[in-house]
Structures are given as structure tokens and as C-alpha cells.
UniProtKB/TrEMBL annotation:
Gene behind this protein: sigX
Protein's recorded name: RNA polymerase sigma factor SigX
Keyword check for DNA-binding: yes
Provenance organism: Pseudomonas luteola
Domain RNA polymerase sigma-70 region, chain residue ranges per copy: 37-104, 137-185
UniProt keyword annotations, A-Z: DNA-binding, Sigma factor, Transcription, Transcription regulation
Length: 194
């Protein structure tokens, strides 16, 4: 066994790629490499989910699901993209799934005329205002633009990584990003003047 795959190592000293390589050989008996990867990205992963979904409860659920998918998928990860890109691709897909589930639930409640939709939106509004900053502004752009902004500012991904995750062309991704920022700048300017 070569030195890079010896059993004694400090996972904090390894790159993502080295940890992925270790996880390929260690999982499911040893989870040190996997745990280090999750530790590195846990906070950003949660922030991406929370900003995308709008609440911490759903974000926590999605993070747990993402971590399980990474755990079971890591052995098959081929490294064609960076680990970070693969992780946020899974996160993006899980957020979309959760968002659709919540939207279906809201439509069902609305169809049954139970009217907790108003309560939910009233409950949500203060959270956006309390958090301020990015969350407040994200409410002013459409879903796809919000996803691009979150992946860029929160996950700190490159445009090509965002394009790959969202299955869009690089130029389309950059164009949507620029338009979303322009829209937010216009909104901000109107609020400052008004």
C-alpha cells in the first residue's frame, strides 16, 4: 500500500480529490474521508439550501438528504468534475425536488380552501426582513436567477460550474446572472431614491 493510502492520516490535511480517493477505498467501513468532506461544505451547503428554500427546517431536511446521497454515491463518483461541483449539483436537484413538494402541498391546501397559505407567507416575510442582505434581495428575482445568484454568492462557484449544475450554456448563465444583478441594482436604486 502506498503512503497516500496508508491507514494513518489527518483528513484535514488532504485535498477534496485525495479525500474522494480515500472514500472510494474506505467506505462503508471507515467514514473519515467522507466526514471531512461534509465538514468542509456543511455550512455552505446549509446556507445554499436555506436561501433557496426560504426556511431552515426544509434546508435541514434537504442537507440530510444530500449528505446521504453523497455517502452512497461517493464510491461511484468518477471525478469528471470537481467534488464541490458534484456536491452542489446534488444539492441543487434536491432543493428543486423539495421546492416542488412544498409547492404541491400549498396548491393542495389552497384547493381545499384551508387558507394557511396566508399564514405561511406572513410567517415567511419577517424572516426575509430579519435576515436582510442577500435573502431580502433574492425575493425580487425569479427562481432560476435566484438559483444562479445563490450558487455564485453562497456556494462561490464559477460560472462554468453553475452552468453545468443547472444544465445551461455558459453564456446563458452569465447573461441571466448579469440581468438579475441589474434588476437588483435598479430595485435598490429605486428604494434609495424613494
Amino acid at each position: 500500500m502506498n503512503e497516500t493510502l496508508s491507514t494513518a492520516y489527518d483528513p484535514r490535511q488532504l485535498t477534496d480529490e485525495e479525500l474522494v480517493q480515500r472514500a472510494h477505498t474506505e467506505l462503508f467501513h471507515v467514514t473519515r474521508a467522507y466526514e471531512e468532506l461534509m465538514r468542509r461544505y456543511q455550512r455552505t451547503l446549509f446556507n445554499v439550501c436555506a436561501r433557496y428554500l426560504g426556511n431552515d427546517r426544509d434546508a435541514d431536511d434537504v442537507c440530510q438528504e444530500v449528505m446521504l446521497k453523497v455517502l452512497y454515491g461517493l464510491k461511484n463518483f468518477e471525478g469528471k468534475s470537481k467534488f464541490k461541483t458534484w456536491l452542489y449539483s446534488i444539492t441543487y436537484n434536491e432543493c428543486i425536488t423539495q421546492y416542488r413538494k412544498e409547492r404541491r402541498k400549498r396548491r393542495l391546501v389552497d384547493a381545499l380552501s384551508l387558507e394557511p397559505i396566508e399564514e405561511a407567507s406572513d410567517e415567511k416575510a419577517p424572516k426575509l426582513e430579519e435576515r436582510g442582505g442577500l435573502d431580502r434581495w433574492l425575493a425580487h428575482v425569479n427562481q432560476i436567477d435566484r438559483e444562479i445568484l445563490v450558487l455564485r454568492f453562497v456556494a462561490e462557484l464559477e460560472f462554468q460550474e453553475i452552468a453545468d449544475i443547472m444544465h445551461m450554456g455558459l453564456s446563458a448563465t452569465k447573461m441571466r446572472y448579469k440581468r438579475a444583478l441589474d434588476k437588483l441594482r435598479d430595485k435598490f436604486a429605486a428604494e434609495v431614491e424613494g
